[in-house]
Amino acid sequence: MTGGQSENPELWAFLESLHSGEFLSGTVTAIERFGVFVALDDGPAHPVFPGAGFISFAELSWQRFEAAADVVHVGQRVSCEFLQFDTWNLEARLSLKATQPDPFQVFVDTIAVGQQLPGQVTKMIPFGVFVQVADGIEGLIHLRELAWTPVETPSDVVQVGDKITVVVTEIDRERRRIALSRRRGSSAGA
Length: 190
Hints:
The chain is mainly beta. It is built from 2 helices and 10 strands; from the N terminus they run αβββββαβββββ.
């Protein structure tokens, strides 16, 4: 474990001077199983870690990815938003995805409740199905919205991979969720 304020006064003072939302540049120095270290251009080096900046996997990208190496590589220059001073690890918690537009918010700017969209079933859960309506954007059809007649399980009506038409019933920007229906877009006999 790293020492605190008394053992690393220069690094502590630098990190304490940072403000949430400001941008920091640096170079990716290591990709670990728990996140990515960044050597910051400004400020002192870290006494233990390969960089005083750290990006958790959740803050790497808006898109889903298998491995951090799919998003960044060692030696890559990055500009990140400063989130907070982690006083325990004596590091700057950073976000790379905060520097990019959120594809979800960009997408929902283009749709409205009641609008029909083409989609593809990606996943089944006991109370409904997830449907991809754009690249990297999924919405949920609740079981009761899957068909006109009551449905026991989603697989009674659809399978993963099926292309279906859905209707947007709710857009929740804060929780980044879209609710969909398969019933409302077609006539009762469909």
